[in-house]
Amino acid sequence: MRFNKAKCKVLHLGRSNPWYQYRLRDEGIESSAAEKDLGALVDEKLDMSHQCVLTAQKANCILGCIKSSMTGRLREVIVPLCSALVRPHLEPCVQPWSPQHKQDKELLEWVQRRATKMFQELEHLSCEERLRELGLFSLDKRRLWGDLIAAFQYLKGPYRKGGTDFSARPVVKGQGVMVLN
Fold first, then answer.
1. Quick one: which of 137, 145, 152 has its CA closest to 176?
2. What is the three-class DSSP state of 23?
3. How remote is the C-alpha of 104 from its chain's centroid?
4. Which of 19, 130, 141, 154 has its CA 20 to 30 A from that of 87?
């Protein structure tokens, strides 16, 4: 199989990285300040702030589409729509790479707060009370829940079910946690 140099870029990580010019045979490989890997934007400082901004924008656009396309604001319709269409965009920001900065966490929570304000009968309540009334958890609590599950799995080792040994392929439930309301 031939190596496709056009699809390859060098991402220099670290503060004191001298930014060497890498080559494949006689041709240099292009350097990049940030690259997308498995859907996450990774930059040279391993800072996920830009990814949080992009994710919040996308989730906010979807939330705006839901808000403008729905004439009624019934909980039975809006909550499942937001859980199915908006939250999956916010939750990858929560578990695999937890937002590092307070403003990133607040930006993601802002989208969720905006979603809970769609219900006029709940507007007078605080965000925590609205989430509780809708049967949802804050992204911060979901992050903690996922961290606890990951720590438990790390301490207890791989799962054994029905006498089957899954040790060749450890089970990580990072995405499974996100399905919870």
1. 145
2. strand
3. 12
4. 154
Residue with tokens 């300040």: 33
What's the pLDDT tens digit per position in 98-138? 677 888 888 888 988 888 888 877 878 888 888 888 888 88
Rounded to the nearest angstrom, the gap between the alpha carbon of residue 69 and the centroid of all alpha carbons in its chain is 25
Token digits for 159? 């799962």
At which residue do the structure tokens 């396309």 appear?
Answer: 69
Cβ neighbors of 100 (< 8 A, separation 6 or more) are 47, 48, 49
CB atoms within 10 A of CB 144: 14
Pair of tokens at residue 151: 């720590």
Among 56-65, 135-144, 160-169, where is mean pLDDT lowest? 160-169
> What DSSP designation does 31 have?
E
What's the count of helices (H) and strands (E) in the chain, helices before strands? 7, 8
Mean pLDDT, the chain, whole residue set = 76
Using CA atoms, how far apart are residues 10 and 21, in angstroms rounded to an integer? Answer: 9
| Alpha-carbon span 78 to 81, nearest angstrom | 5
Three-state DSSP state, 139: helix
SS3 of 61-116: the string is HHHHHHHHHCCCCCHHHHHHHHHHHCHHHHHHHCCCCCCCCHHHHHHHHHHHHHHH
If one counts every other C-beta atom within 10 angstroms of the C-beta of residue 82, the result is 24
Contact 143, 94 (CB under 8 A): yes
